[in-house]
Amino acid sequence: MQTAIIKRGENVLVIHRRRFDRDIRRHFVGTVEAYEDGVMRASGYVFVNDDLNKHVFLKRPDRRTKLIPLASGDVIVNVIPHSVDLEEVRYELADRSLWITDGNGWKMDVKEFGWG
What we know:
- By secondary structure, the chain is mainly beta.
- It has a domain at 11-85.
- The chain is built from no helices and nine strands.
- It has strands spanning 11-16, 26-36, 39-49, 57-59, 64-69, 75-80, 90-94, 97-101, 107-109.
- The relative contact order is 0.22.
């Protein structure tokens, strides 16, 4: 019997790949509700990069449920700790890095390039 690669109840950070430089940078933070045949159903929040300030991601205030095809090659999925408070997730620019954090000790550098 095969085990699902992603499990119900896991928190995820989904980064939508850009095909062109002018494509909008979109991220999604949520909790997996189901996974079947390569498609994940998750509920959470969408973050969109501000066109005027490339280092600012704006959180859409409404909670959404998304169907995300994992095998499409259009998304990068990061499993994040269960302890992350999804309601408090935000982006911060510090030390030449772009961090996603919940302000409670968890953070991840999501800057696309230029580490260090």
